[in-house]
Write a structure and sequence with these properties.
Strand content: 15-25%
Shape: globular
CATH class of the largest domain: Alpha Beta
CATH architecture of the largest domain: Alpha-Beta Barrel
Number of strands: 18
CATH topology of the largest domain: TIM Barrel
Helix content: 25-40%
Largest sheet: 8 strands, parallel, barrel
Structural class: alpha/beta
Number of domains: 3
Length: 531
């Protein structure tokens, strides 16, 4: 039996950016888009060009993505033509494959918020879709507050959906904008909508204010829609959006959906989902939710006892899916085999081969557990994990040894009478029998240390030329007077490759220097340097 296609639409870079405490740089946006593309997401919404300088810049160049790169914005305003609407023209000028227009579908909002006639609102939808298609773009219409609008005035809400579809929109998306609709309502209302517009042109966009965003999205798919919108780890304003890291494995692995539908995520990509989820949390400087469905650290964890004994004999009796399918792992305190399997999988992913029976693997597993207890986290720091594994396997030469470093931060008046803060660092390095002492100033202590460390590495200097620090994140692993600081540093080489390293210490400067050291050593390893 052939399966119907369900398309995945990610709004992390727009909806997710509305999360309190989350801000994406341009580099962050590019990295997240690339990660989503590798995962197999069909549509990646990059933001709102014209609304702010950063999003406008992000859409200034065409993206090399297999996914349909999508710009978001309003339909044209009432009372003006499409050609005379600055917001619409910013969308048309953006380097995007598709444009997702948000349109009012609740008559109350048309009357009060827009202050135009209901027929004129339908004209705005028609003309916006026509303008996008006229510029060769795929048109998508998000019907804002659709479910509230339907409950208030079903005929008008359906008229908005039908107008968008008949104007040529590829997708008409039903939005539960305030997150107040329940699954039974979603199922009933979607069933009525598919009588007006074919389900393979309908999408669902749900918010989590009632804790039902994922359930509502799945209910909508079961009722007929064939596009699902959501965000990584459920980011979004207020309580968040539908969580794609839950929706994707539910559609892929649950027989009720897997037997009927096909999504664009391969089995191999699905096995990276846990890694993607945790790396993304590290990128936005957020502790991963250990209790998250499918991808959380505790999603397949069981304490010793009757459940653990049963799992040891037959995992399927207590696990609703195999954790390895989404890249997670079983945590049962009766054997270290699950942990060893996870380490071997990580080594394979990083291109390191090892035999399961190699005693060094158990030693590596012990080192990882010790370090995690100290505050290290390797999900978002592949380069540091790579070096740790290579070190245990006896394959990392000692390129150099830092004998000491010091940092001084001084606040003073400069020559023109301006109060400035200056950071100075000194690093003493031994390479073989040679000693190198370098000093540098920076705009902060970490920058000064970074410059000083890379200022003169003797015979290795040419191999680190062009290496630069491009991101720096700090998290307090353990609060209180004995707080432990975790530092993540992302570096970029002259050839454009980037990697992330981690350092942990009660002293933030020491933690930073550990991560800086790992970054330099990783560069030397990757280019094949010898001691």
């Amino acid at each position: 039996m052939s399966r119907e296609r369900v398309y995945l639409f990610d709004t992390t870079l727009r909806d997710g950016a509305q999360t309190n405490g989350v801000d994406f740089s341009l580099d962050d946006k590019a990295a997240v888009a690339a990660m989503l593309d590798r995962l197999g997401i069909d549509y990646i919404e990059g933001g709102y060009p014209g609304a702010n300088p950063q999003d406008t810049k992000f859409f200034a160049e065409k993206k090399d993505l297999a996914a349909t790169f999508t710009a978001f914005g309003m339909t044209k305003r009432g009372g003006r033509s499409a050609s005379n609407d600055p917001g619409l023209n910013a969308l048309l000028d953006a380097e995007a494959d598709a444009i997702c227009f948000v349109a009012k579908s609740w008559d109350y909002h048309v009357d009060v918020a827009l202050g135009i006639s209901r027929e004129e609102n339908l004209d705005c939808i028609r003309e916006s879709v026509a303008a996008a298609r006229g510029r060769g773009r795929e048109a998508i219409v998000d019907c804002e507050h659709f479910f509230d609008g339907f409950k208030a005035n079903p005929a008008y809400a359906l008229a908005c959906v039908k107008t968008a579809y008949e104007s040529g929109a590829r997708w008409v998306v039903l939005c539960d904008t305030n997150g107040g609709t329940l699954p039974e309502e979603v199922s009933r209302i979607v069933a009525e909508v598919v009588r007006v517009v074919p389900g393979d042109h309908l999408g669902i966009h749900t918010h989590d204010d009632c804790g039902c965003a994922v359930a509502n999205a799945l209910a909508a798919v079961a009722a007929g829609v064939r596009q699902v919108q959501g965000t990584l780890n459920g980011l979004g304003e207020r309580c968040g959006n539908a969580n794609l890291t839950t929706i994707i494995p539910a559609l892929k692995l649950k027989p009720e959906f897997a037997q009927r539908f096909d999504v664009g995520v391969s089995d191999e990509a699905l096995a990276s989902l846990t890694h993607v989820s945790r790396v993304f949390d590290e990128m936005i400087n957020r502790a991963p939710n250990r209790y998250a469905p499918f991808v959380g650290e505790s999603a397949f964890a069981t304490k010793t006892g009757i459940h653990a004994s049963a799992i040891a004999k037959n995992p399927a009796t207590y696990e609703h899916v195999e954790p390895e399918r989404i890249g997670n792992r079983r945590k049962v305190l009766v054997s270290d085999q699950a942990g060893k399997s996870n380490v071997l999988a990580e080594l394979e992913r990083l291109g390191l081969s090892a035999n399961r029976d190699d005693p060094r693997i158990s030693h590596l597993l012990d080192r990882i557990k010790e370090r995690e207890a100290e505050g290290y986290a390797y999900e978002g720091a592949d380069a540091s994990f790579f070096l740790l594994a290579k070190d245990v396997l006896g394959e990392v030469p000692e390129f150099f040894k830092v004998e000491r470093f010091s940092v001084n931060v001084e606040r003073r008046w400069n020559a023109v009478g301006k109060l400035v803060t200056v950071a100075e660092a000194i690093v003493k390095v031994r390479i073989g029998s040679e000693i190198f002492i370098s000093a540098a100033e920076g705009n902060g202590p970490v920058n000064a240390l970074d410059v000083a460390l890379r200022k003169d590495l003797g015979k290795y200097q040419s191999l680190i030329c062009g290496l630069e620090l491009i991101d720096y994140r700090v998290r307090i692993f353990q609060g209180g007077s004995d707080a432990v600081t975790r530092v993540l540093i992302t570096s970029r080489a002259a050839d454009g490759e980037t990697w992330t390293t981690v350092g942990v210490s009660p002293n933030i400067i020491d933690a930073s220097f550990q991560a800086l050291m790992d970054s330099v050593v990783y560069q030397l390893v990757r280019v094949g340097a010898t001691a």
